[in-house]
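Researcher: Please predict.
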Amino acid sequence: MSNFTQRILTGLVGATLVVAAMWAGGWWFAALMTAVALAAQFELYTMLKAGGVAPVVGLGLMLGLAAVVWPLAPVTLLALVAGVPLIQVAVLFKRRTSPLQDAAATVFGVVYPALLASSIVLLRVGDVGLRGDEAFWLTAAVLFAVWSADSFAYLAGRAFGKTPLFERISPKKTWEGAIGGAVGAFAMVAAFKLGALGDAVSWLDVAVIALASGVLGPLGDLSESQFKRSVGVKDSASWLPGHGGLLDRIDATLVAVPVIVLYLHLTRGFL
């Protein structure tokens, strides 16, 4: 089976699971996002270890769990506050020569990807004055915009790509591809507006979601590529055929969705 075919099949299975959990909403969706985020966090900690840093993995994952589910259980924010001194105590007993790096790496893993992934949960369960089905469709529109931006960027880059976007990190990514990704994301969100969402979102909302998906998404992908290159690994893991690891799959989403949620908060009083 070719790598491209593996990517398509893995993507279809993954998208089906996400959409099903998204439709169920609430703790069903939060449970799936938590599993994805913690797996991605574990992958990040594994990469950090390859770079010579020793994060406190067990404690970091427990705090990551609290970080993902806070939109449904705000009390877990207290666990995050208490977690910082616990990390300090934990590295005290590790007796390593790099306690500052170890503590910083542990906290970074709680923020990226776990806390950033909570924005996806918040997008589904947050109160933006939408009915339950409209909240589902808005979340679907955002996630499909990010996913389609990646696909359209790949196709546009192959067809028209000439100008490197960030040659130092990824010579194959081009500005033409990024523009194609933004256009594809706009078309995707516009389709949702003209269909299921209707007047629930404005054309300004469509444009902001498309720009965040098409412009910020690739930057998220590039930043994760830089992390991997710095520790000499090709993929964050190898358990997703054709995709590598879960962090490789959600790197763009982790950057684009928090900005979209911030925009919705500023314009709609999202929280």
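Model: The mean pLDDT is 89.
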